[in-house]
Amino acid sequence: MVVAGDSLLGAASVVVVVVGGSLVVVLVVVVGGTLVVVLVVVAVVVVVVVVVLVVVGSAAWRTSATAGEAGYNTGRTEGSAARAATTMPRTTRDAVSPTCRNLRNIPPCSHLATLISRHPTSTFCQPTRRQRDSLRPMTATGSFAASRFGLLAEIVDQQSYGRSVDRCRQQGIVLPTFAQLADPSSIPVDITASLADIDRNAADPLNLFRVHWYNDLHGGRTDLPEHVVLTPELTGVDSPIIVAFGNRFPMIGAHKVLAAYACLVPRVVTGQYDPTEHRAVWPSTGNYARGGVAISTLMGCRGVAVLPENMSRERFEWLEEWIDNPDDIIRTPGSESNVKEIYDTCDELAQDPANFILNQFTEFANHVGHHEVTGRALERLYLHHRESNPGLRLAAFVAASGSSGTLAAGERLKSDHGARIVAVEALECPTMLYNGFGEHNIQGIGDKHIPLIHNVTNMDGVVAVSDRACDELGMVFNTDEGRTHLTGDRGVDDAVVATLGHFGLSSICNVLAAIKTARELGLGADDALITVATDGAEMYGSEREAMAAGRYATGFGSAEAAAAVDEHLAGADTSHVEMLDEVGRNRIFNLGYFTWVEQQGVELDDYEIRRDQGFWKGVQGLAPVWDDMIDEFNARTGVRSGS
Ligand SMILES: Cc1ncc(COP(=O)(O)O)c(C=O)c1O
């Protein structure tokens, strides 16, 4: 295309030269003498100017195209994305949609102006000063497709908004703010008091106020997120490993219900999602779909779960209890890493405008929710333990990536406490570490692609853990034989062993990755690592039955427990660990191009802007903006102030 463009310009200049030259000849013949001399000068000046313009323009274009291509291939970091639009090769610019091309003319790249331009017929609230300030970091995002990826911060459809207000008023629904979920002590006392009478797993809208880390297993609220500090007898490393328990979250017993709420609520308060018209579609490998169905139910909407047919039986049993219409459970082919099949199904569903797809891999609100709520909860845990050990550093936040939403918590821990961010995946599907692929059984993680909402260029490390390790340690942690081995033969504290039932497969994976990280970095007793147990062992009883019938068909006793602990805990070494430099980060970032730009049709600008940390700061700054909108929404329903 660049060559073709140059040829076109070259051809145009030849035409002008020829025309200019002909004009001179004709005038010489017809008029003659003095006049001929004047006209020849004019013609020569015209021709020279045109030729100079063409040559300079063509050279400049060629330079910018080359710079753009080189910039992409080598990867850029800070500030580079903002430059991308001007250095982009012409092929890419031509491929950009007309809307995007027009938006590039918006002076000087105001994000709000961009949003408004994208919705010329909609009625917008005037942004408050706080909103404008918060969005300022996003000015570098240029023409980012805010609507597609759930980043709008204005009401874009007043009618839809009005219907949501009516629905919530009729059903007595109050929406919690992100700030309230981050710090539940700020939840109004009347709501807290009413919650006492509501079962934590009931389909009651008040349970929205339990979508945070400060629950116990019986519906009570705690002062500190429930957690365990794993000790050297179990982990084999001196560093304390702090694990926050996700199975305290209501309804689904996993923190993914937070991601679901985070994704839906901005869509409601911006008037994009209309509960009277839309079915909320929740594509996932299980827990996010369950969370989405729970949140939809609480918010008076219809939810649809899309998940691979081979996910654990417990996930389907839960869905069958919560969903009345069997059509609202859609089984896609394959298992954990078959996300492409989920996307294909969602593409088909999206043909029907009544289906509103809430794709956790592209909804930046997932990132925002964890940054705000999980990040603050984990920070609270670190500060709590630092009180008794003032020398305690936060060395790393370690978390397996499914949608990568949880990893956003690490961004807060990194910016405020210097923690490294270490992403974890299954060794059988090492997408980040080796650009590999494959099947595995660490349900919820490692979906064979790099999510769009993953802030890859802020990562510090990648660790891969085998699913066999998680399966076998799952047996150790959840059998009498295994627990007796740990307390008796290994000297692990009873209180620690008593918590091991709160570790689902990905939780065990996180712990193993934390151990490997501690070893790789040579961390000591004053270097804490923090991670989450997204769900508990109760979600995997059927997997353990399968292990008992298969791998351990001859029995699981102390010898088997000892072998598993030796191999996977004591043997958690520094293999399959990479601490990332810029080359490594960019390698992983660039891999996402094939999914998002080539396969899913994301604009190259939108893809590239994510290299820039300024973009992510802008995204994270949306939490208080949405909170203002939630407060306003609650005020309009009049159910309660909600603040
Ligand atoms: C059990 C489990 N662990 C870990 C994850 C990964 O969390 P995230 O999607 O926030 O990366 C998920 C996601 O669904 C999950 O279900």
Contiguous runs where pLDDT drops below 50 for at least 5 residues: 1-43, 50-141
Bound molecules: pyridoxal-5'-phosphate
Percent helix: 40-55%
Structural class: alpha/beta
Arrangement of strands in the largest sheet? 1-2-10-7-8-9-11
- The pLDDT mean sits at 83
Number of strands: 11
* Cα radius of gyration in angstroms: 29 Å
Strand content: 5-15%
* End-to-end distance: 56 Å
Report the principal-axis shape: globular
Most strands sheet: 7 strands, mixed
Tags for this model:
alpha/beta, 4-stranded parallel beta sheet, binds pyridoxal-5'-phosphate
Structural features, described:
By secondary structure, this protein is of the alpha/beta class. It is built from 28 helices and eleven strands. The protein has helices at 2-30, 33-74, 80-87, 90-95, 98-103, 111-118, 129-135, 158-171, 178-182, 189-195, 232-235, 256-269, 287-298, 313-322, 339-349, 364-388, 407-417, 431-434, 467-477, 480-489, 494-497, 505-521, 541-549, 558-570, 582-599, 604-608, 613-620, 622-637, and strands spanning 227-230, 241-245, 279-283, 302-308, 329-332, 355-357, 393-400, 420-426, 461-465, 527-533, 577-579. A seven-stranded mixed beta sheet has the order 1-2-10-7-8-9-11, sandwiched between helices. Strands 5-4-3-6 form a four-stranded parallel beta sheet, with helices on both faces. Strand 7 (393-400), helix 17 and strand 8 (420-426) form a beta-alpha-beta unit. Helix 1 (2-30) runs antiparallel to helix 2 (33-74) and helix 8 crosses helix 28 (622-637). The two termini are 56 Å apart. It binds pyridoxal-5'-phosphate. Pyridoxal-5'-phosphate binds next to helix 12 and helix 13.
